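debug: dumping io for the single-chain case to check the tokenizer round-trip. Nothing else runs in this session.
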Amino acid sequence: MEIYLSMAQGHCACRERRQSALAPLKASFLSPSVSPAAAPPSPPSSRLASGLTLAVLGAVAFSGKAIIVKLAYRHGVDAVTLLMLRMALALPFFILMAWWAGRERNGLKPDALHWRDGLGIVWLGFTGYYLASFLDFAGLAYISASFERLILYLNPTLVVLLGALLYRRRISLYQWLGLGISYGGVLLVFGHEAHLSGEGVWLGSALVFASAVSYALYLSYSGELVRRLGALRLVGWASAVACVLCIAQFLVLRPVAGLWDLAPQVWTLSIINASVCTVVPVVLVMMGIERLGAGLAAQVGMVGPMSTLMMAAVFLDEPLTAWVLGGTVLVVAGVFVCTRSPVVVAPAA
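debug: decoded output
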């Protein structure tokens, strides 16, 4: 759940749909492209500074999720249990978030939830948070935190590809260039990771990439609900749905009594994961978007992969090699090129 939003990194999909999905969460993106001339005016310097600070802190906090998960795996916990703990602890905050965003303000009451809205929320909660989060947690058991973050950061490029597949949107040559650069960076790190870690890298990479695809589907279909319900309200309810699904999955697959056998460190790390790496960054990134606008906040999210590299080296002793650094630079540069396409591309006829 990139609430995680990749909330900002994951949410910055390309210019073609940036505003309709970028509003969704952390710094998401999507919606028809706008020309540079139509860009909103720059925020005042004080607002800019606070917005940048909030967006950076949110992106770094989101990136810490992989570090927490890898540390927890050292204590023998499995993905199903670890994900349940994270979501169960975060559930009250998401419900509060949804209520807060849906309350009456200044005599104006937001639109009531229609049954179609409910179905959409359930679908988005399943694809964007439950399925994406489970696949991500499962994949982290096989690959490094640094490589996982790079794969998830491909999210904007996946939204571009899904736009072409689902909505027949043309991909410009500039965007193809960005796609080639970013996927070349992932392949570079994949080769290095496979050499060091063996066959499990294939499975871990496939699981995390499937997580990124699932989250890209969420971004691609969330635009209409975001416009109707608002970003914070949608995030709150969709995340709450995912929390319930994760808890139900645990109850079906694992004995509840097993929770008392977990190491104390697992509980501590899960509390940190649910708060510092899930709920808090959602709020920080949304506040950053409010001050900077979705586009700039999403670009700030590019600090995510770099911060993961640094934290993985410090807390997990993952090697910070030239291969990893080079691949990270290529992925970030490719996503930047893809999402900064100067050409306004119309849907194919």
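debug: round-trip ok. Residues 1-39, 342-349 have pLDDT under 50 and may be disordered.
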